[in-house]
Automatic annotation (TrEMBL):
<dbReference type="GO" id="GO:0010181">
    <property type="term" value="F:FMN binding"/>
</dbReference>
<keyword id="KW-0601">Photorespiration</keyword>
<dbReference type="InterPro" id="IPR037396">
    <property type="entry name" value="FMN_HAD"/>
</dbReference>
<dbReference type="InterPro" id="IPR012133">
    <property type="entry name" value="Alpha-hydoxy_acid_DH_FMN"/>
</dbReference>
<comment type="pathway">
    <text>Photosynthesis; photorespiration; glycine from 2-phosphoglycolate: step 2/3.</text>
</comment>
<protein>
    <recommendedName>
        <fullName>(S)-2-hydroxy-acid oxidase</fullName>
        <ecNumber>1.1.3.15</ecNumber>
    </recommendedName>
</protein>
<dbReference type="Pfam" id="PF01070">
    <property type="entry name" value="FMN_dh"/>
</dbReference>
<keyword id="KW-0323">Glycolate pathway</keyword>
<keyword id="KW-0285">Flavoprotein</keyword>
<dbReference type="InterPro" id="IPR008259">
    <property type="entry name" value="FMN_hydac_DH_AS"/>
</dbReference>
<dbReference type="InterPro" id="IPR000262">
    <property type="entry name" value="FMN-dep_DH"/>
</dbReference>
<dbReference type="GO" id="GO:0003973">
    <property type="term" value="F:(S)-2-hydroxy-acid oxidase activity"/>
</dbReference>
<feature type="domain" description="FMN hydroxy acid dehydrogenase">
    <location>
        <begin position="1"/>
        <end position="360"/>
    </location>
</feature>
<keyword id="KW-0576">Peroxisome</keyword>
<keyword id="KW-0560">Oxidoreductase</keyword>
<dbReference type="GO" id="GO:0005777">
    <property type="term" value="C:peroxisome"/>
</dbReference>
<keyword id="KW-0288">FMN</keyword>
Amino acid sequence: MGEITNVTVYQAIAKQKLPKMIYDYYASGAEDEWTLQENREAFSRILFRPRILIDVSKIDMATTVLGFKISMPIMIAPSAMQKMAHPDGEYATARAASAAGTIMTLSSWATSSVEEVASTGPGIRFFQLYVYKDRKVVEQLVRRAERAGFKAIALTVDTPRLGRREADIKNRFVLPPFLTLKNFEGLELGKMDQASDSGLASYVAGQIDRTLSWKDVKWLQTITTLPILVKGVITAEDTRLAVENGAAGIIVSNHGARQLDYVPATISALEEVVKAARRQLPVFLDGGVRRGTDVFKALALGAAGVFIGRPVVFSLAAAGEAGVRNVLQMLRDEFELTMALSGCTSLADITRNHVITEADKLGVMPSRL
C-alpha cells in the first residue's frame, strides 16, 4: 500500500483484508447513504480564517473531559464487535487509547467484556449503553462497568430500532459463530442468530427497548453515580431536554449515518446544539472526523472534543494496536499543525472567528467580526 500518510488509507487496506460481510458492516450507512457521505463533505465546506505572526513555538492540546485530564480532544467512539476486525479487538483499542493518553468508549456490543478491557491496564474508559427490555440486564451491566473502573456512561438514544442498512441485509450479516457479545455471555444474549435479512436488526428488534424515553435517563441516574452522556442528540429541542434531565454532557451523533438517513452531518448540527446548551454542559462531536483540520473545525464551532469511530476499526483491521496508535498519532500531529498555522497555542485560543461556515457565507449568521 506504500506509506500511510493519513487515516483514510487504512480504509482501503481494511477493505482488502476483511471478508466482505465484515467490511460492509463497518463501512456502510443507512439506506441511500446520503448522510454517510455528508458527514465527510460538510467538513469540506467549512473554511479557515487563520491568524498570523503569533508565537506558536509551544502548543498545548491537553484538555479535561468530565474532570479527567487527557492529552488531546480526540477520543475513541464506541464501535461494536471489534474482534471481527482483528483478533485482539477491543484489547488493542484500549491499549492504544491509554498509550495516547485519551479516552476509549467501549460498546455494549463489544466482543470483549468490561472486565477484560479493564484488565489491559490503566486508562480512562467510558461505557456505551444500549437499554435492553430486561432492565435487570441493564442494571447488571452498569454495575459491572462501575466495578471495572469505567468513568461515565454514554447512553445511545437514537436506536429504538436499527436503521435500514442495506449492505447488512444483502450480506445476511451475523456475528461470526466463534465470537460472542462478551458483556452478555451467560445471559443467553451473547449470540446472534442467522436471519432472513440482518441478524443484528433481528437482535435489536428482540432485545432493545423501544419505549426508551427521558424518564429512563432519570431512572439511570437512580442506579448509578456515573455521569451520563447522551449520545445521539442533533437538535436544540433535545439539547434543552438533556440539560433539564440532568445529562452530564451531549455527544452530537447520527450513529455514523447508520440510523436515519437524511439527517444533517453532525458538524452541521453542532452549532445548533452548542447554542441551546448555553454552556450548561459540554458538547462533543462524533461522526466524519478524518483529519486534524476536522478536529479544529469542531472545536471552533463549540465542541469540547471529538470521538472517532471508523478510523479505529479500519486501522485495527489493517495493523492491530499499532494501527490504532498510528491513527491517534496522525490526528494529533495534524491537529497540532492546524493549530500552529491558525495561530492558536491552546484549545482556549480556538474561536468561532477561526472558521467560516456555509451559513456565514450566505449571511444567515449575524456578523461576528
